[in-house]
Hints:
Elements: E1 11-13, E2 16-18, E3 22-24, H1 40-50, E4 56-63, E5 75-76, H2 83-96, E6 99-105, H3 112-116, E7 121-122, E8 136-137, H4 140-159, E9 164-169, H5 174-179, H6 194-197, H7 199-212, E10 218-223, H8 234-237, H9 241-247, E11 251-255, H10 278-287, E12 292-295, H11 301-309, E13 315-317, H12 320-324, H13 328-333, H14 348-355, E14 385-389, H15 393-404, E15 408-413, H16 422-425, H17 432-447, E16 451-454, H18 460-466, E17 470-473, E18 478-479, E19 492-494, H19 495-499, E20 508-512, H20 516-527, E21 531-535, H21 548-559, E22 563-565, E23 568-574, E24 577-582, E25 585-589, E26 594-597, E27 601-602, H22 608-613, E28 618-620, H23 630-642
Parallel strand pairs: 3-4, 3-13, 4-5, 4-6, 6-9, 7-8, 9-10, 10-11, 11-12, 12-13, 14-15, 14-17, 15-16, 17-28, 19-26, 20-21, 20-26, 21-22
Antiparallel strand pairs: 1-2, 18-27, 23-24, 24-25
Helix pairs in contact: 1-2, 4-7, 15-17, 15-23, 20-21
Bound molecules: flavin-adenine dinucleotide and flavin mononucleotide.
Amino acid sequence: MSSLKNLLSPIKIKTLQLANRVVLPPMGTNLGNADGTVSEANLAYLKRMARGGAGLIIVEVCAVHPSGPSINSELGVHDDRFIPGLKKLTEIAHTAGSKIALQLHHAGRESLYLLQQKKAIAPSPIRSLVFGLTPREMTLDEIHEIIAAFGDAAVRARKAGFDAVEVHGAHGYLLTQFLSALSNQRSDEYGGSLANRSRFIMEVLREVRKRVGEDFPISLRISAEEFIKGGYKVEDIQPILPDFLKAGADMIHASLGTHGSPGGITSAPIEYEPGFNVWRAKKVKEAVNVPVIAVGRFVDPNLADEVIGRGEADLVAFGRQFLTDPDFLTKAREGRPEDIRKCIACNQGCIERLILGEGTIRCAINPETGQETVYQQGPAAVRRNVWVVGAGPGGLTAAYEAARLGHRVTLFEKEKTTGGQLRFASKSPFKSAYEEWGVWLTSQVKKKGATVRTGTEVTERMIEEGNPDAVILATGGEKSIPSIPGINLPMVCDAWQVLSGEVTPRGQVVVIGGGLIGMETADYLLQKGTQVTLVEALKHSPVLKITSHGYMLHTRLRDGKCKLLFSTEVKKIEEGSITTLCEGEEQILSPVDQVVIAVGLKPREDLKKILQTRGIPHFVIGDAAQPRRIMEATEEGAKAAWNL
Ligand SMILES: Cc1cc2nc3c(=O)[nH]c(=O)nc-3n(C[C@H](O)[C@H](O)[C@H](O)COP(=O)(O)OP(=O)(O)OC[C@H]3O[C@@H](n4cnc5c(N)ncnc54)[C@H](O)[C@@H]3O)c2cc1C
Ligand SMILES: Cc1cc2nc3c(=O)[nH]c(=O)nc-3n(C[C@H](O)[C@H](O)[C@H](O)COP(=O)(O)O)c2cc1C
C-alpha cells in the first residue's frame, strides 16, 4: 500500500491552498429546483460528497445566462436571487474542510429544451449532433452580452463564498462551439483562424479576471481533444494554451470529448482503462506552467498518486468514483483499500438517467447517491429477522442495506456462488468488473454481519418452518423459451449455457434474440473467433447506440462481422438449418451448427404465494418482479431494506 504522499500533498492554485490533490469534478445532478435555485437535495448530496475529503470540489454546471442552461432545471447564477442557495453549498464544503469552485456554464446549442423553443444560440447555425436541431447564430451584441454574463456570474460566485470559479470550456458547450471549426463557421473576428476561434474563450477569461480581481483563482476546463471526426486534437490547441493563461486562467482541467463523441468518451465506458486520458493532461502540462488536472476513469487513488508522482498532472479528478463511493479516499487513507466500491463505468445511474430520462443523478451500484434525503441512516427501530432469497445484484444490495440498518439477515442462494446473473454478464469482453463488484459486495454483506448461505434453495417448506419476520424475494427472472418447432433439438442451447462454458458452440452459430443478453452472447462468441448470426424480431435492437455500452457493443458486433438480421423471426429449427421469416419472405439459413436462445426472462412467480398465504411481509424486487437491469435491481433491493 502506497502512502499516497503525492496525492495527499497540499497544492496552491494562485492564492488558494488545497489540502490535497483530489478533485471532485463538476457533475450535473439535476437535483436543483425547477427554477435553477439550489434545492435541499443538492445540499444533502453535496454534504455527502464533501465527507469524502476532496481538496477541491467543483460544483456542477451553473448557467451564467438565461439562454445558457442545458436543461431547464440547471442551477443558475445569472441573477442575485441564486446567491443565497449557492452560499449554502460553499458553507457545506468549508465545514468539511474542502475548497469549492463553481463551474460557469453556457450550453450554446446543446440544450434540447431551448432548441425546441427555437431559443438556443451558438456561434453558427449548425445543428446539434446530439439533438439534431439547429440553433440561431449569435449576433455580435449577443456575444458581448454573454461575455459580460460570465463576468457577472463570477462576481456572484465570489459573493456566495466560492474559493474559485471554473470556466466551462469543454464538452462541446458554447466555448468549445467557438473553438471548434466544426461548429464555428463565422466570418467575423470570432471565426476562421484558430486565433479567432479562441477569441471568445480569451474574452470570457479576461472579463472574469477583470471582474473578480487578480487574487481569485480561475480554472479553465477544456476538452484536450474533441474526439470526433474532423475535430481538433491536443497538438492543435497546445499553441494557444499559454494565451489562455495570459487571459486569466490559473489552472487547466484537461477533460476530453464533445457532445456526439462516439461512445460517450467524456465519461468513458468500461472499455477504457483507468487513467486512459492522462497522456493528454501531460501534453497540456508541456504547454503551460500552471497546475493541470487529469481526469478519466480514475477509480484507484494509487494510480492517481503515481500520475502525480511522475509529473504527468498536478491534481486528479475522480468523477463517477465519487458517486460510487464518496468515502474511497478515507478508506485508502485508513489502509483498507479492499473496502472501496469501484465504479464499473456502466453509466446507468449517472449519465443515462440524466441524458435519456432527464432523471436525477444516481449510481447503479450505490443506492445512497442522489437519494441522500430518503436514505435511511439507521439503526432500524425494530430489529427484524429478515430472509433475502437470491444473491444477485438485487439480493446482495438488499442484504447489505438490511444488515447495515441492524436487521438479522440471512441471504440464501441456491447456486454455489453468489452474483446471480453477474456470473454471466461479466463474461463478455471488458466486463470482468461486474463480477468483481459482485465478489466485493458479498464480502461487504458478510462484514456487515449477514449470514450468507450458498447452495441453499429456499422452498415453501423452509419458509413455513423458518417463519421469518420479512422476506425480500430477489430470485431473478425465469428463462423464456420460445415455442419454435425444433427448440428441443440437441443443437439448441441457451445463452447462459454458453456464457457459463457449459456449451462451447462451434461452426456457424445463430443467436436468437437481439436484446442485451443476445448481443453480449454474440460479443462473447465473436471474441472467441466464432461466426455468429443474430436474429431479432424487432426492427432495431432494444440496446440503444446512444448509451456508451450500447455504442461499444454495436461497434464490436459490426467490426466482428456479426450478421445482424432484424425484423426477422425464426419459424423452424432443423438439424443443420433454420427457417426465418422477414417481411413476409421465408428464408433458410444453412449450415447452422448451433442455435443459442437469448430471448430474455420473465418474472418469477414461485414463493410469492406461500408468503401471501402466511401473511409474511415481503417485497419482490429486481428481475423477479420484472426482468430489467442492475440499476433497477439494486434500487429496489435497497428500498425494500429501508422499508422493512
Ligand atoms: C449476459 C448478460 C449480460 C447482462 N449485462 C448487463 C449489463 O451490462 N448491465 C445491466 O444492468 N444488466 C445486465 N444484465 C442483466 C442483469 O444481470 C440483471 O438484470 C440482474 O442481475 C438482476 O438482478 P437480480 O438480483 O434481480 O436477479 P439475478 O441476478 O438473476 O439473481 C437471482 C438469484 O436468485 C437465485 N435464486 C433463485 N431462486 C432461488 C431460491 N428459491 N433460493 C435461493 N436462491 C434463488 C438465483 O440462483 C440467482 O443467483 C445482463 C444479464 C445477462 C444474462
Ligand atoms: C452524471 C455526470 C454529470 C456530469 N456533469 C458535468 C458537468 O456539469 N460539467 C462538466 O464539466 N463535466 C461533467 N461531467 C463529466 C465529469 O466531470 C468527468 O469529467 C467525467 O465523468 C470523467 O471522469 P470519471 O471517469 O472520473 O467519471 C459529468 C459526468 C457525469 C457522470
